[in-house]
Amino acid sequence: SSNNEDESASNNKHNVCWDIVQFHPSYNYEDFVRGIEVDPNGNSGITYKTANKILGKMAKEAKDANRTKYVLIIDEINRAPLASVLGELIYALEYRGDSVTTPYTVDNSQHLVIPDNLIIIGTMNTADRSIGSIDYAVRRRFTFINLPPDEEVIKNQKEQDAPKEKALRLFDAVTTLFGKKDNDESNDKNETNGNGYMDPEFYAEDVQIGHTYFLAKSDAELKHKFIYQVIPVLKEYIKDGILINNPCLKFKITTSPTSSPTNTTDKPIYLSESFNKIKGEIESCWSKIYVG
């Protein structure tokens, strides 16, 4: 059932009910819309019955409470075979209020309606090419909004002790790998022109490291996330060909309020080095990173 199944609209100050589900490769229609489930029947054994699943339940609740907004968030929406998971609901997503016939009868009806007050939001990772793309029939039923990494989110953290200055310098250092900054005057012939170190087959907006990696409540948490999460992702990008496997692939972390090339770490940090060496280089420069 939804997180708000037992909460009436009158008790919901925002007049919104929501739930979240995460898709995965083995997720199917029977997990999402309607299917057969086991119904324990005491000492007499078990029986099987058809039942609404998360989308079917929320659709019914939303239809019965048409003044309340219902929001279903689908995390990693493109990890599942989406056309198969949605089935005939592809039609119902576009023609809200029109009933569609499902393979299963629930409450003496095979029909299902997606009302206007049920909002479906899907999130997806555009960097992961190992998962399926969304076909055009499904794509037409959704509005696509790109949410690129945003340093303003780092600046506006609400945690009082958040190391924002350090986080911004780390974020800036990593961002240079996906496109040169305007003040980058490097003429290193071993570097890829125009687009930093990124393979031209990829778009920065699809693969750039997100700002959530740089959201931390303390120096220790930020350093841990950078060394043990950001650096491994960057090295994996090299392995996958997103970042060009170049021995000169490097970034520099600024250590003062200005962005002058002289105010950087003592030496560049090269991603072609072993993880332990990179870790050591970052730790050695950590105390030099300016904190306002």
What labels would you give this structure?
10 helices; Rossmann fold; 292 residues; disordered N terminus; two-stranded antiparallel sheet; alpha/beta; three-stranded parallel β-sheet; elongated; 29% helix; 2 domains; single chain
Q: Care to describe what's here?
A:
The protein is α/β, with parallel strands linked by helices. The protein folds into two domains: 9-139, Rossmann fold; 151-286, no CATH class. Helix content is 29%, strand content 16%. The chain is built from ten helices and nine strands. Strands 1-4-7 form a three-stranded parallel sheet, covered by helices on one side. A hairpin with a 2-residue loop joins β5 and β6. α9 (219-239) packs antiparallel against α10 (275-286). It starts with 15 loop residues before the first strand and ends in a 6-residue tail after the last helix. Residues 1-11 and 181-194 have low confidence and may be disordered.
Concise structural overview:
It contains ten helices and nine strands. It has 292 residues and is of the alpha/beta class.
| Average pLDDT rating | 85
Radius of gyration: 25 Å
Total beta-strand segments: 9
Overall helicity: 25-40%
Tell me the strand percentage band.
Answer: 15-25%
- Backbone shape: elongated
